[in-house]
Amino acid sequence: MKYKRMPIEVESPEQLGYDSIACNLAESSVSDAVYGNLGLDLGKLVLCYGDHYGKPELREWIASQTEGLKKEEVLLTAGAAAALFIISTSLLEREDHLVVMSPNYATNIETPRAIGCGISYLDLSFENDFRPDLEKLLSLIRPNTRLISITCPHNPTGMMLTPAELKELIRIAEEKDLWLLVDETYRDLTHGTKLPLAASLSQKVISVSSVSKAFGLPGIRLGWIICRNKALQDLFLAAKEQIYVCNSVVDEEIAHSFLLRSASFLPSIQSQVKENFSFLSHWMERTPELEWVKPEGGVVCFPRIRQDASIDVERFYHILNKNYKTYTGPGHWFEQDRRYMRIGFGWPGKAELAEGLKNVRLALKEAVKRS
Ligand SMILES: Cc1ncc(COP(=O)(O)O)c(C=O)c1O
Questions:
Q1: Which residues have C-beta within 8 Å of that of residue 3, sequence separation ≥ 6?
Q2: Which domains, ranges and CATH numbers included, belong to the chain?
Q3: How far is it, in rounded angstroms, from Cα 64 to Cα 70?
Q4: What is the CA(186)–ligand 1 centre distance, in A?
Q5: Measuring from atom 3 of ligand 1, which residue has the nearest CA?
Q6: What is the SS3 assignment for 217?
């Protein structure tokens, strides 16, 4: 494995220091929960090794959200990040080949790169509304392709597959005898109707999710892999056991208690997301320097500075970050031109979002190229 730090992590708000940021539009989740507000008492919790698959009652709860799913098909992991690492390292070796959506959450690309396998990118372009071209995907498949990796709802664009596209992807995976990984970390933040849990539709599909993005619990590192193929799930368990044996029982306990009562937490989380999204949409209409493809899921979008707006992009970021202490996710986090920026609208409160967007507009105006 050849590890390399990813810009999205090096430059993340938590690494910069939250205190040095006035307006944080760089996050990709809803607001972080506060432990004291969860009404938990972990006083009697025994700090033992936990069940290696993960706390059975929590896996049961996760399975109960999808008709017909069994807890045996759910493996808990340390966040979706560990799930993605386990899947890549279990399925890919140097001589294998992967087709992965690009741009993407960096780990979906960087771990296969660290393994050194062959990689083809299914590029999503602004001009094509960030939609995947499935004909193109077919042309990328090689005899040694083992895995197709997609993210839906997509980070950083908020693009959602249609049910027909998901069906077609599964058909391709089954016909070509490949694994299909669907990173569904934002599934509970779908703006319209959720797609079915992909792994429930076929033995060839692996679904990944976590409590980080939709529930605001990234600090407890709790995610999962759902897969109906028992041999594959056992392979993932073998990887998990070699890396860290089992999840933190503290994390499992907090996630379980939260999810049991999620119906009482979700309305306020979802209303903040809805209000913020509506505010952002109106702001975009009144910001002629930017253009976007409206997201259909998740809490991020990926607008870009119009080419003809005559903005000095480096000056823009300098003014935005240094003068206004406001942060977005610049395009290079996703190996895209820095004219693109990811704006996260689920994390900041209303006032911080409004102030941050005001600062983006001011920085754009101040960065106009002088002729
Ligand atoms: C698409 C996607 N997958 C996985 C992750 C990892 O999330 P976590 O490890 O916090 O569950 C992220 C985080 O940004 C993400 O955006």
A1: 114
A2: 7-28+264-366 (3.90.1150.10), 48-260 (3.40.640.10)
A3: 8
A4: 8
A5: 185
A6: coil
Q: Computed from CA positions of residues 320, 326, 332, 337, in that sequence, does the dihedral angle turn out positive or negative?
A: negative
Whether the model pTM is above 0.70: yes
pLDDT tens readout for residues 109-157: 999 999 999 999 999 999 999 999 999 999 999 999 999 999 999 999 9
Measured distance CA(8)–CA(74) in Å, rounded: 29
pLDDT at 8 over 80: yes
Instruction: Write the single-letter amino acid at 7.
Output: P
73, 233 Cβ separation under 8 angstroms? yes
pLDDT surpassing 80 at residue 371: no
Q: Tokens 């309305």 appear where?
A: 267
As a whole number of angstroms, the distance between CA 152 and CA 149 comes to 10
Q: Kindly tell me the burial class for residue 2, based on how many C-beta atoms sit within 10 Å of its own C-beta (0-12, 13-18, 19 or more).
A: exposed
Q: Which residues, including other chains, have CB under 8 Å from residue 246's CB and lie 6 or more apart?
A: 49, 50, 51, 52, 54, 240
Which residues, in sequence order, are bridge partners of residue 210? Answer: 223
How confident is the model at residue 74, as a pLDDT?
98
| Residues forming a β-bridge with 34 | none
* Å from CA of 366 to ligand 1 middle: 34
Q: Is the CB of 185 under 6 A from ligand 1?
A: yes
Residue 169 has pLDDT above 90, yes or no: yes
Q: Is 104 in the pocket of ligand 1 (CB under 6 A)?
A: no
Q: What is the pLDDT of residues 259-316, one digit of tens each?
A: 999 999 989 999 999 999 999 999 999 999 999 999 999 999 999 999 999 999 999 9
Burial class (CB in 10 A: 0-12, 13-18, 19+), 370: exposed
Pick the closest to residue 218 from 31, 40, 5 (CA basis).
31
What is the biggest distance separating any 2 CA atoms in the chain, rounded to whole angstroms?
Answer: 69
Query: And the tokens for 32?
Result: 């972080």
